[in-house]
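Review form for a predicted model. The reviewer records the input and the model, then writes brief findings.
Reviewer: anonymous (R2)
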Amino acid sequence: MALTGIQIFKFLPKTNCGECGVPTCLAFAMNLASGKAELAKCPYVSADAKAKLGAESAPPIRTVEIGKGEAAVKVGGETVLFRHEKTFFNKTAIAIAVGDDESDADFDAKLKRFKELEYLRVGLRLRADMVAVRCRSGDPARFAAAVRKVAAATPAALILMADKADALKAGLAECRDRRPLLHAATAANADAVIALAKEHGVPLAVRAEGPEAAAAIADQAAKAGIQDLVLDTGARKLNDGVVQQTAVRRLALWSKNRSFGYPTLVVASDFADDPMKQTLAAATFIAKYAGIVVLSDVRGELLFPLLLERLNVFTDPQRPMKTDPGIYEINKPTVESPVMITSNFSLTYFIVSGEIEASRVPSWLLVLDTDGLSVLTAWAAGKFVGDAVGMFVKKCGIADKVTRRRLTLPGAVAVISGEVEEELGSDWEVRIGPREAANLTSYLRQM
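Model under review:
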């Protein structure tokens, strides 16, 4: 039977240091009981407490880290089946597969696309995360050479994919300091591959036909002392994959079955050879519920939609994406440049700032703290109203940067213009801008 928060609290140091990320040990104990935290987050917990709490305090799905440094990828750690229940924490990692049997031109072209395909969206850099090196030749030396080439070309997290332990050993020798994921321990090679992963302290993927068979190999690896495991249920049909991914997530979260309490990996290229069909499969498993999806290639027109889907799925629905409030200079404004104001909802900010940049008109953009709400939503919530806007304009320091004090409000909240004028006084001229950001470019050029 799982321990309650109060029972777990008795084993904690009760220092209330806050180093675990929450202010009190009691709050940390409650998070442990609900599977929202890991015991390792407490720097002062005793070895005796660790032994007594054991698996009771572990999250239902283990967080597994692959790679090192800034390029490290975390997968797993989820605590809910549906995003709206709370949030998903660690985004699905997207990997590109390169084979050791590919021509140098194809091999290099894939790596080039992997490194260059990067997009800026609402202030975030979106890109693929991992490179999977596949042993298709059956030659350990050739596989090792491919791994060495990839490791030299990119610091990204690596997946070593081979059926034979000797090939995995040869590849691991080229990048063991990068903490790659070994794929995979199977019924045929489990003893050798599990021993290899344990010897070098690297995460291990297990692969079998179906969740039960994969969990059996995972149990074998866990008994050998390997904790960082990833499950590959071996599905090759889309409907089977969805059923299996859902079953694994439910067994881990609802049944608290530790044999299934690991992130999962899906090889999208197993579902189809066609890149478009692979992308459709990857899109399905980003939503339900893969920790890693492996594509045979990445192309901009296919990768970008996957990155946007992932951004939407893994954005916390209870915490809007925010931009820091303050004064933003766009197109090198001067003391006579116009001043505009918007909310700190990230999407709103980047759309507005993008339109201002496109106009090439030097401008000042004020960003008001609205707790991440869009302009209209913030107005309805009483956060983008006349007195709040006026007070912010007076306190932010923009008056010291301009001699022509002209403030442009979003047209959608023109109703607050009178209140803003009253708050700012006669020193400022308040103007009404367009209702839609798309019209800002022409509006500024006319000004």
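Findings: Residues 238-253 form the longest helix (16 residues).
Further findings: The two ends are 69 Å apart (CA to CA).
Recommendation: see findings above.
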